Amino acid sequence: MAKTVFVGMSGGVDSSVSALLLKEQGYKVTGIYMKNWSKDLPGMKCPWAEDLADAKRVAVKLGIDFEVWDFEDAYREKVVEYMLEEFRKGNTPNPDVMCNQEIKFKLFYEEAIKRGADYIATGHYARVIDGKLARAVDENKDQTYFLYRISDGALAHTLFPIGEMLKPEVKKLAEERGLHNAYKKESMGVCFVGEVGMKDFLKEYIDIKPGEIREIESEKVLGYHEGAVFYTIGQRHGLYLNGVAGEINDGLPYYVVAKDLDKNIVYVSKNLNDEHIWTDELELKNVVLRAQPMTSLSRSGARPAGLSPQAAGATARFAKLRTPLRQDSDVAHKDILVRLRHRAPLIPAKIIFKEADAAILEFENKIKRPASGQSAVIYDGEICLGGGIIA
Amino acid sequence: MGLYLWEICYNMFMIYLDHAAATPVSRKVLQAMEPYFTQDFFNPSAAYLPAKKVAAEYEAAKNTIAHAIGAKGTDIVITAGATEANNLAFTAVTQHNHGKGEVLYLETEHDSVRAVAQQHDGRAIKVLPSGLINLEDLKAKITDDTTLISVSLANNELGTIQPLAEIGSLVREIRVDRLKRGIKIPIYLHSDASQALNLLDINVARLGVDMLTLNAAKIYGPKGVGALYVAHDVKLSPLTMGGGQEKGLRAGTENVPGVIGFATAIKEAKEHLNGNRKKYKSFKQILLSELQGYELINKKHTLDNFVVLCYNGIDAERLIYLLEEKEIYVATGAACAASKGQKSHVLTAIGLSDTEIAGSLRLTLGETNTEEQIHEAAQIINEVVATERERING
Questions:
Q1: Which of A129, B1, B242, B250 is most buried (most C-beta within 10 Å)?
Q2: Domain B27-266 belongs to what architecture?
Q3: Domain boundaries in chain A?
């Protein structure tokens, strides 16, 4: 008998093609639109109703069942509240990571299993290899950065139908099968924030407290900001630096290098080498480790000869770890790869566990410091080992 | 005279059964409007003769619109569509009774009435399972502070025609009674006639309304043009401020081509009224006899071009997408994505269950339709419904 799959359909081309592929592979497919957020923001109409219509139209075209599952309360509580709380603390959280962990691969997964599904599926660019989370074939689209915290239990029942495909192939297939959303504009960033941007979203929910912008070296007040929580370390835009024009008009931009949330002061610097911006180590908290792959020693295929080690995209696909990562030791594991932002290049690094869920990442060369609250995701070759939140 | 390409399109390549949502601009309307975009583009407020000529033609067009409902041109305020006209009507509440007047509106009203009525803390009048106004509920809810009652002439989801004349005489009785008792608070009756303008013979005096909303876009006229008929003693406040056009109630340079188009459309509607009603009645009969496995939702007192069906156990929104692939365009009032996922307040109000609401399909006939199309549509709808039932059972 055909296996049953519940596929999350967002109305976009990726999840539509995922549903199409599953149907063609002979699964009994039910499309689910997860209604996570429907509130309009000032100046922005939440596009959920149109997204839902797009998803449903595809489901009807494929002749599969379709349902809307309402996760608005849980989403508000587990994703939005978490995000606001992190911003209030001065961090820059990643709500998509939380959405996957708490909603798509938890509530959606659990409900689907309860309803008799053998698998869930999503339109993420990711793969499952031997039960392990692995980067997508389309390195440019890989979404494992957002998936590193999903449970291994859910992963064992998850299909990523487009993980082996390149985005242009996905689009082409949608076009060939007459899926109307083949050319739909890709949603960027956090769905509920949409086009208005995070700052405008936060203004709706977080009290704005204007404060000073100071130069870190001189402590001089250069201007005023709308609220320290809106600024991220390393950011160079949106500084209203008036008042001392003579000194700042040398054409060099200022960067946010520090925030004092208690005093509501944002510190900036023109010095691109400011120690606050660069670092060769990062502290991680809330570290999760996924099920470990076999180490490279126990596998026959190490990196094929003749491949330039500099070709990161290529070499990064081959496992290098000689022993499994262990969280309870002070041992340093070399040869892991780290991704600090979605689609950012993979950087070789060393990880040293301090506690079960706390670790230090060490880099050979200095890196631009990512904002606290963002995720660092670690890989051995193409297998995602897990990751943690940057402290 | 040959056909335009767009006329060929809607005659040959699609079957459009959603005339309650929008109508194509008729050829006559388009031709009448065209010169006012180009050679007669003048601002009616300008001083020179060509502009004065345009101003005169604009007033004549307003007269044509007004005469079609038994009113005078000076009783008409041109608006940018029916929503705006409905909003304008409700300003009567703030202009009378120190703004403390109470508002009553039919629970099945269009959102453009509901939203503004709710802003005035309006109370909803119940409908009967037939979709007709519950007159007892209306009487019970009228108080000495009731200033405005809004009841659409025909409902946009069901096509139900409300007994406006009856409500109008009730309002007149209340008025007399208030005078007798020395109560100076006025009471007005407003009706949105957007859906009915080309399907009923409308006369404001006969209906007993004080305000009536009209819409060009539903009668093969241009979108973005509407009008509010306003009886003499009703005081309104402006929606837009500016150069004092439209009796100071709707400032902004006159939409001359739009109003010319509206007048042409309303004239055509009058001419075709009886012929079209007869045609739609026969089309409706064809649909009802050839379609299979449905329940008729709007059984009586409905516009001739409205057919609302329920396919029990089926999600009618799926039918929309399936029919769309066959280039047949229909609508649903069900909990559909297009309606922001909310189930229809109209179908809820007439007491349909959730599954009945989900299964309901609205077909609205119009001038683009031919008898041949109606037979074809019935056949294809039957096929699609059968396929969908198979999918559910298989």
A1: B250
A2: 3-Layer(aba) Sandwich (3.40)
A3: 4-191, 207-269, 278-390
Within 58-97 of A, beta carbons closer than 8 Å to B belong to: 60-61, 63, 66, 68
Inter-chain residue contact B337 with A52, CB threshold 8 Å: yes
Contacts of B393 in chain A (CB under 8 A): none
**Minimum-distance CB partner of A61 among B321, B340, B391:** B321
Residue of chain B with shortest Cα separation from A63: B391
CA closest to B315 among chain A residues: A66
Distance of residue A52 Cα from the nearest chain B Cα, in angstroms: 6
| CB atoms A56 and B340 under 8 Å | no
Q: Do A56 and B341 touch (CB under 8 A)?
A: no
> How high is the ipTM of this complex?
0.86
pLDDT in tens, chain A (391 residues): 899 999 999 999 999 999 999 999 999 999 999 998 888 777 777 788 888 999 999 999 999 999 999 999 999 999 999 999 999 998 999 999 999 999 999 999 999 999 999 999 999 999 999 999 999 999 999 999 999 999 999 999 999 999 999 999 999 999 999 998 877 777 655 666 665 677 788 888 888 789 999 988 899 888 888 888 888 888 876 555 554 434 455 667 788 888 898 899 999 888 878 888 889 999 999 999 997 765 544 343 444 444 444 444 445 667 777 667 777 666 677 789 999 999 999 999 999 988 888 999 999 999 988 989 999 999 999 999 999 999 9
3-class SS letters over chain B: CCCCHHHHHHHHHCEECECCCCCCCCHHHHHHHHHHHCCCCCCCCCCCHHHHHHHHHHHHHHHHHHHHCCCCHHHEEEECCHHHHHHHHHHHHHHCHHHCCEEEEECCCCHHHHHHHHHCCCEEECECCCCCECHHHHHHHCCCCEEEEECCCECCCCCEECCHHHHHHHHHHHHHHHHHCCCCCCCEEEEECCCCCCCCCCCHHHHCCCEEEEECCCCCCCCCCEEEEECCCCCCCCCECCCCCHHHCECCCCCHHHHHHHHHHHHHHHHHHHHHHHHHHHHHHHHHHHCCCCEECCCCCECCCEEEEECCCCCHHHHHHHHHHCCEECECCCCCHHHCCCCCHHHHHCCCCHHHHHCEEEEECCCCCCHHHHHHHHHHHHHHHHHHHHHHHC
| Domain edges within chain B | 5-24+273-393, 27-266
Residues in chain A with CB shorter than 8 Å from the CB of B321 are 56-57, 60-61
Q: Exactly one of B336, B374, B377, B385 is catalytic; name it.
A: B336
Supply the CATH classification number for the domain A207-269.
Answer: 2.30.30.280
Q: Tell if the CB–CB gap between A35 and B341 is shorter than 8 Å.
A: yes
Q: For A278-390, which CATH superfamily applies?
A: Translation factors (2.40.30.10)
**CATH says B5-24+273-393 is which class?**
alpha beta
- Tell if the CB–CB gap between A63 and B391 is shorter than 8 Å: yes
